[in-house]
Every structure is written in structure tokens, then in C-alpha cells.
């Protein structure tokens, strides 16, 4: 006997069952409807791109080619699984530049892959749903993306007040870094280290970020992350940005102008945020789209406004402790990404929803968009006799149900009736159809027995009221002529 291969799943990946897939489908249908309401159209890009076309923009890359799954093809070319949906869009837009309308508004959805250390809630494969406007330098495009993100969350059943779209501008951050003495190409690496440290504010808090801005931070496992090695004055300057949010958007913009717009770059970013604040206020979104200078976003390719969709409610976890889901999406302006292919500036902005994380949050609040915890399985037609003629009869019953638009399955195992009914329960079926010799040879002509499996389960629990018990029993299993099969099954399915 040969050695058996042990079934095992790589870390950071997950098998997904019917309930998860159905919930994901409902979420994506809702988001799709929102995006299309804003005039975005569908496009699909491949899972695999040339590595140099994707570029190296992921956060937390401490070594070359980290963060992506890459391999060589038979032409000795490096290929990579996409790590997001934006970099492939930039390549696609540049390749089809002459044939596309400008601005170009599109949405995409699908799995992306990160070759990172997996952990709780951190997967190597997950689903994103993006919408982007390419070819418009208007700040109105950024404001519109933020408003669409708010509508997408509300359309999914997240109440106003339970989320916020937080907005900042990378130019403000660039201005602060310039004023801290980190301008020029020689300081590019340190600037990136500072931005990544700031992006950890929600995770590590003030003290953790200060350590990352200074000499570095050692985590609970003992791993040490080297810091940006700023002085105390520069650290105070950077930390001031993270705490610059005021009472409302106008007040926050005033504070940014007064304290963090001392450089031309910083002043430009503060002006863009003031314009976004005015646009969202005019459209009635000022209570949901909030200027917040603590938003950084980890990807390197952002060049202007950046956004974060954050859930603000808390739920109780399995351990009894409160859980706050935080960010479920984000994006920003990336005016230099398409330019990598064309050698000329091509403005662009977009937003990405993390579908898997959002699904977990919606499940926690019991959002109706998810529907049943697990979708109902097909009607199961039982097999009581297995001769050729008998099988032909039940196959005809299954075909009749399917022709009537009802999902139906013929039991193809070799178990008896009770085991077949248990099988139907495991398939989460609402209804089973039975026809044995007694039903085929009925005096008035062939009949089928319809079993309502949901009511049958209630009946098995017992009813204290005899009248209720008898009513349930009559509805839980009853005969109908073969000609009435489809109507009878529809009636049972309609109950559930």
C-alpha cells in the first residue's frame, strides 16, 4: 500500500461553504448595484500579471519581491498573482488607452493574493470590490468616490452613524515630512518608513507609533522592526498630524491650514481637503464623509486624497469582549500609476471594499442582506426501488421539477429511506419527494408523497396542543397526483 497524502490547507487560505458563498454573492450584488447607479461599468482583469507591470507598492516589504506570489513562465518572464485590483487596472487602461472613453469609470471584483504572514483575520487570499475613475484630475471625482462608498455601506444595511468615510491627503503628509527635514530622493526610504509607522496608529496607538518613528519597536514575539530614527522634535511634528482632527470638517481644514500647510505641497493638500469638504457638504454627506488627518493608507502609489471606510459600532465576540471591526475598505488618488506605462501624468482615483471583512461585520449585526445563514438546498427526490423502470420513473419526476423551475436532485446513493431523508436534511432541503410502489399503484392513479422537512422537524420536537400537532402532521407529509407535483412543491417552498 502506498503512503497516503495528508489532506492539508496552506496557512492563510480557507475553504468556503454554501452559506459563505451565498452571503458573498448577495453583498457583491448590492455593491454592484450601487456602483452602477453612479455610472461605473464592469471590467475584468486576469489574476496573473507580469511582475514588473504590477510594480512593488505593497506595505511592509522588508525584502525584494516580498508580498507577492511570483514565478517564471516558459519564456523566463516573471509573473505574479495580483495583490490588488488597482495595479492591473492601470496596466489595462494604459494598454487600451486609445479606445477607452476618458474619464474611464469602471468596477472590478475578485480574489487578490498577498504573500504575507497570515494571522487572525489576515488571509493570503481575499476578495476585493473596486471602483475607479481614471483620467480626471477633478477633486470632485474623489468626493464622489467617498459618497459612493457611504451609499454602498448603507445599501448593505449598515445604519447611518454606524460607519464613517474618513478622508486625508497624502500631500499634507508630504508637507509635514518636508518640514521635518525628510525631503529629497535621499530620504525616500525614511519617508516611506514614517508613512508605514503612521498607518499603524489604529493598531499600535500613540506609543507604538512613536517607537516606529524613533529607533524601532519590538513586538510580543520578540521581532524587532527598525524605525525611521527621527528626533523628538520631528516625532512630535509627525504625531501632531495624527491628532489634528477638529469638531467638524471646516474646523479641521482650518487647523490643517494653520499648522500643517507651511510648505507648497502641504498647502495644496489642505486645499484639496477643503474642496472635498465643500462638495460633500453640498451633496448632504458631511455627516458621513469626515476629514481626518490620521488616515494614511499603506500602499505607496497614493499621491493625493486617501479614504478609509470604517465601521464604528461594536459587537460582543465569542470571548465576551467587545469587537470593533474598523476599516472595511479604502482607496485614494494615484496619479502616477498609469504614468509608469505612458510616461505622462494620467490622474486616477478609486475605492476598494474588502468583501470578506465586510461580510463578517454584516453577519455580526444580522444584516438582512445576508439572507439565511445557509441557503436552502434542492428538493430531493428519494429512490425507493432501483430497477431500470423504477429509476426511469423517478428520473422523470426530477425532470418535471426542473422543467417547472425548481432546483431538484435525484438521490444517487444506495441507502434506505430513513438515510435518504437524513441526507436531505444535511443538504438543507426544505422538501423531499417520495414515490414507492404504494404511491405508484394508488387506486385513483399514481401519486407522489410530498414531505415538508422543515415542518417535519418541528413536529419531531413535539407540540403541546393536539390541534396544532394534527395540523402540522397534515402539512408535513401529504400525497398529490403526479400532475400536481410542481404546484405542491412550490407551495411547500413558499412556506420557507
From TrEMBL:
CDD domains hit by this protein: HisRS-like_core
Lipid biosynthesis in keyword set: no
InterPro entries linked to this entry: aa-tRNA-synth_II, aa-tRNA-synth_II/BPL/LPL, Anticodon-bd_dom_sf, His-tRNA-ligase, HisRS-like_core, HisRS/HisZ
Domain of life per record: Bacteria
EC nos: 6.1.1.21
GO biological process: histidyl-tRNA aminoacylation
Main localization of the protein described in the UniProt heading: cytoplasm
Residues engaged in binding L-histidine: 84-86, 114, 128, 132, 297, 301-302
GO molecular function, one term: histidine-tRNA ligase activity
Gene Ontology CC terms: cytoplasm
Catalytic activity: tRNA(His) + L-histidine + ATP = L-histidyl-tRNA(His) + AMP + diphosphate + H(+)
Keyword Aminoacyl-tRNA synthetase: yes
Keywords from the named record: Aminoacyl-tRNA synthetase, ATP-binding, Cytoplasm, Ligase, Nucleotide-binding, Protein biosynthesis
Subcellular location: Cytoplasm
Ranges of residues in domain Aminoacyl-transfer RNA synthetases class-II family profile: 26-375
PROSITE patterns xref list: AA_TRNA_LIGASE_II
Quaternary data: Homodimer.
Assigned protein family: Belongs to the class-II aminoacyl-tRNA synthetase family.
The protein's name in its UniProt record: Histidine--tRNA ligase
Organism in which the protein naturally occurs: Lichenibacterium ramalinae
Amino acid at each position: 500500500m502506498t503512503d497516503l497524502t495528508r489532506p492539508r490547507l496552506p496557512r492563510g487560505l480557507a475553504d468556503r461553504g454554501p452559506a459563505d458563498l451565498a452571503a458573498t454573492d448577495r453583498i457583491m450584488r448590492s455593491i454592484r448595484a450601487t456602483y452602477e447607479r453612479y455610472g461605473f461599468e464592469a471590467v475584468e482583469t486576469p489574476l496573473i500579471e507580469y511582475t514588473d507591470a504590477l510594480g512593488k507598492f505593497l506595505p511592509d516589504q522588508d525584502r525584494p519581491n516580498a508580498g507577492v506570489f511570483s514565478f517564471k513562465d516558459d519564456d523566463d518572464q516573471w509573473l505574479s498573482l495580483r495583490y490588488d485590483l488597482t495595479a492591473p487596472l492601470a496596466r489595462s487602461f494604459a494598454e487600451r488607452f486609445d479606445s477607452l472613453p476618458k474619464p474611464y469609470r469602471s468596477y472590478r471584483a475578485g480574489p487578490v493574493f498577498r504573500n504575507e504572514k497570515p494571522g487572525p483575520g489576515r488571509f493570503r487570499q481575499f476578495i476585493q470590490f473596486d471602483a475607479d475613475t481614471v483620467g480626471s484630475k477633478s477633486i470632485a471625482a474623489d468626493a464622489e468616490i467617498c459618497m459612493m462608498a457611504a451609499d454602498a455601506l448603507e445599501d448593505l444595511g449598515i445604519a447611518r452613524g454606524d460607519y464613517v468615510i474618513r478622508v486625508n491627503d497624502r500631500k499634507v503628509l508630504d508637507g509635514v515630512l518636508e518640514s521635518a527635514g525628510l525631503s529629497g530622493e535621499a530620504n525616500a526610504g525614511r519617508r516611506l518608513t514614517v508613512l508605514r509607522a503612521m498607518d499603524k496608529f489604529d493598531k499600535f496607538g500613540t506609543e507604538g507609533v512613536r517607537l516606529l518613528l524613533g529607533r524601532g519597536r519590538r513586538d510580543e514575539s520578540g521581532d524587532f522592526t527598525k524605525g525611521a530614527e527621527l528626533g523628538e522634535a520631528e516625532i512630535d511634528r509627525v504625531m501632531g498630524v495624527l491628532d489634528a482632527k477638529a469638531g467638524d470638517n471646516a474646523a479641521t481644514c482650518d487647523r490643517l491650514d494653520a499648522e500643517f500647510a507651511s510648505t507648497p505641497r502641504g498647502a495644496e493638500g489642505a486645499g484639496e481637503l477643503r474642496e472635498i469638504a465643500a462638495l460633500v457638504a453640498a451633496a448632504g454627506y458631511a455627516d458621513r464623509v469626515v476629514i481626518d488627518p490620521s488616515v494614511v493608507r499603506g500602499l505607496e502609489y497614493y499621491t493625493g486624497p486617501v479614504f478609509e471606510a470604517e465601521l464604528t459600532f461594536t459587537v460582543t465576540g465569542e470571548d465576551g469582549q467587545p469587537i470593533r471591526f474598523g476599516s472595511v475598505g479604502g482607496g485614494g488618488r494615484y496619479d502616477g500609476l498609469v504614468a509608469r506605462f505612458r510616461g505622462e501624468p494620467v490622474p486616477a482615483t478609486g475605492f476598494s471594499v474588502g468583501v470578506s471583512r465586510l461580510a463578517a461585520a454584516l453577519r455580526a449585526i444580522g444584516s438582512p442582506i445576508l439572507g439565511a445563514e445557509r441557503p436552502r438546498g434542492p428538493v430531493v427526490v428519494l429512490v425507493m426501488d432501483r430497477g431500470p423502470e423504477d429509476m426511469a420513473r423517478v428520473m422523470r419526476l426530477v425532470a418535471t421539477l426542473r422543467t417547472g423551475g425548481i432546483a431538484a436532485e435525484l438521490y444517487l446513493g444506495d441507502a434506505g429511506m430513513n438515510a435518504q431523508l437524513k441526507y436531505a436534511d444535511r443538504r438543507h432541503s426544505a422538501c423531499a419527494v417520495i414515490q414507492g410502489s404504494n404511491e405508484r399503484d394508488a387506486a385513483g392513479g399514481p401519486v407522489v408523497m410530498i414531505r415538508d422537512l422543515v415542518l417535519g422537524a418541528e413536529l419531531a420536537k413535539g407540540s403541546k396542543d393536539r390541534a396544532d400537532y394534527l395540523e402540522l402532521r397534515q402539512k408535513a407529509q401529504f400525497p398529490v397526483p403526479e400532475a400536481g407535483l410542481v404546484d405542491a412543491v412550490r407551495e411547500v417552498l413558499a412556506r420557507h
